[in-house]
Design goal:
The structure is a single chain. By secondary structure, the chain is α+β, with helices and mostly antiparallel strands. It has one domain: Alpha-Beta Complex (Aspartate Aminotransferase, domain 1). It has helices at residues 42-51, 62-65, 78-92, 95-98, and strands at 9-13, 16-21, 24-30, 35-39, 56-58, 68-72. It has a 6-stranded antiparallel β-sheet.
Amino acid sequence: MALSFEGAVEMPHFGKPSFRVNQKIFASLDEKSARAVVKLTDVEQSVFCGYDHTIMQPVNGGWGKQGWTVINLKTVSPEILRDALTTSYCNVAPVHLSENYKRF
């Protein structure tokens, strides 16, 4: 799903797949624990996490305060996952790429 965005590429990040646009990470995947991490703003993070804290929650520590958010891939719906990935992609992609995608 992450590779469906224009300009998205997969690269390793500390031994796990990360998904980047313009050399910036917008998502990473931990297949072993069935979790993904995305980059959201404070407001976006509170909206997504407020929906259901068992599906999404801020990363522990300082990274979570910067908007990095964990997604439980076992419980998230495809629609919410797509919305979170799109939002994260738009947060880091250049405007000429992000303007092609609707955010939540």
